[in-house]
Amino acid sequence: MRPWTRPFRGRIDELTIDSSTLVGNLPGDPTVRPVWIYLPPGYDAEPDRRYPSIYLIQGMTGQIDMWRNRSAFRPTTPENIDALFAGDGPGEGAAPPAIVVFVDCWTSYGGSQYLDSPATGAYHTYLCEEVVPFVDARYRTMAHRDHRGITGKSSGGYGAMITPMLRPDLFGGLATHSGDALFEACYGPMFAEAARALRDDHEGSIEHWQADFSSRPAFSRPTDQPIFESYGYAACYSADPDGTVRLPFDPATGELDAEIWERWLRWDPVRVARTPGGAAALRSMRAIYIDAGDHDEYFLDMGAEAFRRACVAAGAPEPFFEVFPARHGGIEYRYPVAIRYLAERLSE
Known about the structure:
The protein is α/β, with parallel strands linked by helices.
């Protein structure tokens, strides 16, 4: 096991997109965004060949350079993807070659859930209307939804479920690893933790927490995580038109606010899959891949099963489904498994 960077058989082009969609976003986050395009071995040697494309998106707090973070005794995600297409990855032989697009949708709230929100910015539109055309114009993609997929983990897994249901004209396949779904199970337990932390450490005030959080190293208090996540998700799911972020619970008690919570539930992939539009989109998919660890701290194994059932009820193609021994973190080795699955089906 080599501890340093492995030589690539394919290559990664590191480009930027000067986004017009993100101009004027309320947090003032960057509008020039990095995008990495992985090109498989043989791309340059076969100038007439076209390839399916797979968009890889990140979880909450993810930013694009984190893909090169190395865990002990494990390759990085780009190295795993390169090995997959070179024939050294999981499965038998090399995966059918595909272009893999690493997308950055980081925000000051930690993420965007790949939705348009007045609080964070128009990241769904950015992904669909700027990133996809940018890639298709510069690389030899098979520029049709039947040959375009999307995949991610956690909030990236959420984006991989919701985006094709909103834009089945663009994406014909999806793969979700421990994606946010069945919101009462994955988010509900977090709200009580956040309310208690606000009460005990921040006078019940989100503004007090924000001032404290920005004055010290991020996440240096153990209670930061549930507050940060609750507020960050609220910025995506329940922001008012003026950008005011509405928490779905009373900070003093944790009691749900029914009206705001309903605004969250409208974005739950399990519930979207049960709508006529969501069900029709799922029926049109050429590939659906769902997995999760069986001891996921956010109960996303429950969400995975609920989403699988919703796909089946919608009449979608039979999903690949697996619950495997793991928690929420440390499952980056699953990315190439799903990418192979998508590449095989989107190449046809």
